[in-house]
Amino acid sequence: MVVAYNIYIFDRHCECIFYTEWNRLNSPLAADAETDRSSKDLVRGNQVLTGDGGSSRSSVDGQRPLVWPTTATSTAHRVSAESPRNVAMEEEAKLVYGVVYSTRNIINKLNSKDSPQGGNPGGFMSFATNTYRLHYYEAPTGVKFVLNTDVGATSMQPVLEMIYRNIYVEYVVKNPLFRVDPKTSTPIENDYFRAVLNNYIREISSAA
To answer: What are phi and psi of 135, to 5 degrees?
Structure first.
């Protein structure tokens, strides 16, 4: 059984366009949600209760983990200094990207496959610490996926490729409402993408 902790998706501009988590303590997202609970949706089972006490609406899936960023909180789209932001998550995303970028480049150089066009010709897939294993997948389009799991997890390359080809491409790239600006980063705010991803992670986590 695999225990998935969280996933980051980075675009070609090195910006985190999607983050969510499943098994994590002391999360910057949880702390941010707690301080802003009155203005956010509360999730209970498969019902979402609006913060203003309005009527409930059905959720796309039964258990909605917190996600980041949104258009309002992303660095590229924040309209003013007063717009909400989560500094801790911004710094964490930059740190994670810096780690995988440096590790990938070191492996490329050690394998004499460093390229001015970037990419992952050295085949960096994962590294492990004593508390977690980080898995890395870089799609041909330059989109990067970073998945953290328990240390005992085996290669997650098939899982990340599945997420890219059958979930990201289907629910993000092919979504006519998702406008990709080549000059800026656009957060993924697609409930169906989030729901299918969440269900898939629950499926592989419950598999023996």
So the answer is: -115, 140
Q: What is the pLDDT along the chain (208 residues), one digit of tens a residue?
A: 899 999 999 998 889 999 999 987 777 776 655 555 444 443 333 333 333 444 333 334 445 667 877 755 555 444 344 445 677 888 999 999 999 999 988 888 887 766 555 567 678 899 999 999 999 999 988 899 999 999 999 999 999 999 999 999 999 999 888 777 777 788 998 899 999 999 999 999 887 4
Contacts of 111 (CB under 8 A, 6+ apart): 121, 122, 123
Prediction pTM value: 0.76
- Residue 167: strand, helix, or coil: helix
Rounded Cα distance, 179 and 23, in Å? 31
> Which residue bears the tokens 């913060």?
51
* Phi, psi for residue 168 in degrees, rounded to 5: -65, -50
